[in-house]
User: Fold this.
Amino acid sequence: MVLVIERLPKRQRQQQLAKAIEENPFITDEELTKLFQVSIQTIRLDRLELGIPELRERMKLMAEQSYDQVRSLPLHEVIGDVIDLQLDKSGISMFEIREEHVFSRTKIARGHHIFSQANSLAVALINDKVALTAAADIRFVRQVRLQEKCIAKAYVRSISKGKAKVEVFTYVGDEVVFQGNFIIYHASKDRHEGGELHADSD
Assistant:
């Protein structure tokens, strides 16, 4: 989205604010203040007048609207907030980098947190009671810093008997910061390529 240089009239600003949130539901009030060059109080008042909830509430609403139940592990063991989950297909989670996730001197996130978000989402995608990471080919594209929001998007590329291939891209804004290809072992033996279960014959 192109940055807004001049201050807009209230009605026009609110229209563009609603559009900005629709295009990027993960955008924060702080990011909106930079985009529209107004105070955070103005952004919050605009949201209230438009009936748009804050980021955390928007995430909860998104999760309630399209959400399969995780089978392979308890939900609290998935690193980050699961926003969307379609078992054996795709999923999205958000993980905000806080003080406990960074090196104290540099404020750069420890790599294992970024990996854990992607890895746990890849496992959570599998529609099976038992799913474990068998192998991972990962690449850290750039450092992630304090208060940045990591949006992980996972896609099941193939599922066969006992094995699934899951690709995960993690973004900060529009920039890829991490990429991983995971091979996930699962217990079911009655699957074929494409992720669907065979129908029972009897």
Observations:
- The two ends are 55 Å apart (CA to CA).
